[in-house]
Amino acid sequence: MITLHGGSWGARDIQRDPFVSAYPRATAIPTTPPEPTTRCQAAPFRSTCVSLIHLFTPPATPDIEGARGSDPRKPCSNVTEISSPATTLHSLPTPPATSATCLIVGDHYSTSLYAHHLPDEDPLASFERDDAFISTLTIDEKIGEGSYGLIYCGSVTGGKFFAIKLMKKTGDAEQDSVFQEEIDAMERAVESDWAVKLKYWRYSETHVLIAMSLFSGGNLYDYAKTQRSFEPDLAIFWAAEILLGLHSLHTLGIIHRDIKPENVMLDVSGHIKIIDFGLAKLFDHNSVSREDYPLFHSLKKTGGDLFPQIWALDSNPHTTAEPFGTQGFAPPELWQRRHYSFGVDYFAMSCVLYELLTGKLPFAYDSATDNYDVMNIAVDLDETLPDVQRDFLRKTLIPNPVLRPSVSHMKRHLLFKNINWHALARCELDPPISF
């Protein structure tokens, strides 16, 4: 059992679908906000009855039957995905017996880390082997699966290993567009030192193949639950790296929209890498009219922490009201179908930090309905956190998005007093652990 300022990661130790763990497809937030709860209390720890894709039971969705049996609000014990054209629910039946307990993808590969589940047929059968990469690519084993396809460990001549994501095409134009948007986001994210690297992608008549870098450290969730204790300095260090990683993506015009512990991997040195761009939103900084948005161009020219703007203001051309995110890490404005911008990623970052420090989610919990109220943020109600940590989290998780601090204000907060931002950006600082 792992005690985290009163929180417990040990309670969350359940067997999970490895694809869902490391490359999950998050829930599209329902168009109707959940009914506010009236009997709220501090949120409980993530337990064995909590979905590990979104970390609490989603509101009931009447148009999808059977997702959670007769009671769509009732949580269960394991994770899988149920899809419809309109939305995706995550129910919790038992995963296949052949699944690995977690997906660990990294620069160094060890066969002992994976369940030995060799594919029943050649996953590359639909692809012509007419280029240098795919002609030498060997699929070693399946290491995960999800609603959109499978993840394999693959290798090429020379012994280099990759995570191979193989998705089946259905002929639906909207689904094909989703696949291409993920590829577009990964291609752009290659310029960030903090993101997974896209190595190769290709379409066949029936499949989409994406090859990406592997990371050996697992993800934040997996690391946290294996530790006897979790040092706050380590959580703060990783939060600082996530902050830098998100800002680097934002300067490239990418809103990630799915930041959570399962989507933050660790490399062999213990530094973070952001994965899963399946929900990413892309904007083109270079297409913005100088006449219509003079402040945008002024901030772009100045650069640094002030660009891009993170709030959905009239002076910000890059806003959206698309209801996509992960419940438990998405801010209230997404539930309300209000416009938002890059700032939603920093809200999710603070939710990750809060969970690492407390083992809980920063939302009120109604024991009568056994459900979280995602419109009611509750940060450290029992005041067990140190003042500096509580102050940072309450400011970054405040319900009104325009009152949340800027990147520069977050970096200057006392929470990060021991962080040399210039050195961290150059990866010259080591995590405060032996990794």
UniProtKB/TrEMBL annotation:
Domain Protein kinase: 137-416
Top-level taxon of the source organism: Eukaryota
Entry GO MF terms: ATP binding; protein serine/threonine kinase activity
Sequence positions that bind ATP: 165
PROSITE patterns given in the database record: PROTEIN_KINASE_ATP, PROTEIN_KINASE_DOM, PROTEIN_KINASE_ST
Keywords: ATP-binding, Kinase, Nucleotide-binding, Phosphoprotein, Serine/threonine-protein kinase, Transferase
Family stated for the protein in its record: Belongs to the protein kinase superfamily.
Protein name: Kinase-like protein
Organism encoding this protein: Macrolepiota fuliginosa MF-IS2
